[in-house]
Amino acid sequence: MTKFNIHKTLILMAILNIMLALSVIFITIYAFAYNFEASSLPELYFLPVISLLALSGAAVTVTLLRPMVAAHSNRLKQAEASLDDLNKLNNTMRAQRHDFMNHLQVVHSLIELGEHSEANAYIDKVYDQIEKVSSSLKTAIPAVNAILEAKRQAAEKKGIDVSIEISTTLSDVPVDSWELCKLLGNIIDNSIHALSEMGEDCHRVLSIELFEDIHSYKLKISNNGPVIPQELWDKVFETGFTTRVREGEGGMGLSICKNIISKYNGKIWVISDEVETVFEGFVPR
Asked: Is residue 15 within 8 Å of residue 8, measured between CB atoms?
């Protein structure tokens, strides 16, 4: 609420400064246009100074507004992305509900025919599909659930096996939901890209864990993609740094993640070896 009031105040100040500047300019032009004598109205020479000060004040106010406008713009973009993810999640759930009815009919028919082993195997397959979606729906933040499910589907379309383990509802997490989505999305996207660089014949695995203890909320996202050399473990979080081959790709996602976590007095780091690359982080409760 405080930020919103400051935002409104600065906008009002900018408008008033611009109106004052325009008014003074108009008065100055009007006065000189009618050839008032300087000796009778010496104050006229102060009008351009007042106008300049008013314009300077407007410029300063607009400069102060720019980061606020950028922050609101980022929130709006993330809200749109979250809404899109929620719509995708809703469509997935509706499709699963429709499929579930069909699955029940198949199981019922198999049981009536006495094909109990076939019915059991069919139920196991259906359960695995339902469990994958259910694993993404365990937090109290719909936007987080949606982005986890969206990223899971995106990874599996690329042939990546995804494991999601959530043992926290995130109900009291201090991070804004839109920033939390950006944090998780960037790290997961980084892992998906790393795994995509491996051959399709490789067994590619992405693991996502969200949990908590009495001190903090924690995340652990790992993949079995290419190794990140130890001398680059800190550099990967620097703005503009990227390990991607094609010029112009990447370089921002992980630095954004570090900025978000640092904003809430948390930490993030990476450890990588021949077995897996692990991104871990936490924010205090």
From this structure: no
Phi, psi of 240, rounded to the nearest 5 degrees = 90, -15
What is the mean pLDDT of each successive set of 10 residues along the chain, which is 285 residues long? Answer: 57 71 68 56 61 68 69 70 68 68 78 82 75 74 86 89 91 89 91 87 92 94 93 87 54 83 94 94 94
Q: Where are the alpha helices (DSSP H) in the chain?
A: 2-33, 47-112, 116-134, 142-157, 177-196, 253-263
Q: Residue 202 is part of a domain; what is its CATH number?
A: 3.30.565.10
Answering whether pTM is above 0.90, one says: no
94: in domain: no
d(CA 86, CA 69): 25
* 152 falls within a domain: yes
Total of domains in the chain: 2
Q: Name residues whose C-beta falls within 8 Å of residue 214's C-beta, 6 or more positions apart in sequence.
A: 285
